[in-house]
Amino acid sequence: MGNPAIRTSRLPSGLAEDLAACLLPAASASTLPAVCYSDREVHRVERDTVFRRGWIGVGRFDRWPDVGDFSAIDLGGVPVVVVRDTDRLRAFANTCSHRSSQVMVGDGNCSRMRCPFHFWTYALDGRLLGAPSMQRTDGFDRGEHGLHEFALVERYGFVFVSLEGSPPPIDEWLGDFGEVHEASNLAGLVTTHRREFTVECNWKGFAEVFNEYYHLPYVHPGSIDSTYDDPDEPDVVVGAFATHFGTTQGTGGLLEDEQHRALPVMPGLSDREAHGVRYSWIFPNTVIATGAEGMWMYEVYPDGPDRCRCAQVVCFPPATVAMAGFHEVAESYYERFDVAIKEDIPVLEQQHLGMRSPFAGQGRFSYLEPNVARFATWYAERLLSAG
User: Fold this and answer.
1) Which residues in the chain come in under a pLDDT of 50?
2) Most exposed of 268, 307, 329, 362 (fewest Cβ within 10 Å)?
3) For residue 228, what are the β-bridge partners?
4) Superfamily of structural domain 171-384
5) Domain 63-153 has what CATH class?
């Protein structure tokens, strides 16, 4: 695609040339420069080009099953509230139209949204319902002061929000994601487990470790390493995602000594799909694994360059959830995911400390890191488009 690096003046000196090295084929490409994980100036550019353009994953549709269910979420420094209206799920700027206080905090259920500062009150569709003591303000029209609404769509059971005024079509953004994952019927899975936590590392580092096999024998010996065979050649896909499949010895959803507790294989999978795991990364911040019995995933949100907020989510088919004894067996799956993350986190935090060194350079990719290499290309293109 030529060298778009020269277009931008927002990037630190020399970064454009380093990012251009990420655009080569994976076997020849360099990893992202360390400053992309640690530098505040780069984080600001990333915020504008990665999180305020295109689509951002905010979780599964069944996180908000009932009218009035809401969550306050920070997307690239923008406070957003996702709320279930009577007819559909919506996303609004979580900023009062009066003097910009954050309106909603945390997760919960409400009949209306009320700012705690001066009690301006909004309907679930964002309309301003009440504004105390504004009767003496000349020309004040409540209809002109509703919450700013963002585009929100649901696809394959996932929810995406865009902060752009005119975002790209979501089906164009996702490309052939649906076709690649068709056998797993992602839209039909239901969430049985969700937990949130923070990690003292850059959000990209967390998403990357979920998407590569290279670290398994060194970080996960005795827990999950022996379960995984080497992955297939990476899939060639269209859209803002990466994916690769690999066979497993037993199920990737359980620890090595818990394989006898495997739940039923999802219907519709081929014999090979029933004996492996597909790891996918919906750019920028949703990473998923579709195994034989269900799906596990992480939502990853930046909290500055040095910390990320994560949500672990586990989903199974409704028929599996309805089985007698399901919840007891499912605990073994949740334990596997917790064990793996507990093993990952110290290494991620140690890696991040290394990223902050002025002597940290660019590495090269192993054949065991295809999704990470594809993300590096996508990310580099986004930053190089800044200007």
Assistant:
1) 1-8, 387
2) 268
3) 248
4) Naphthalene 1,2-dioxygenase Alpha Subunit; Chain A, domain 1 (3.90.380.10)
5) mainly beta
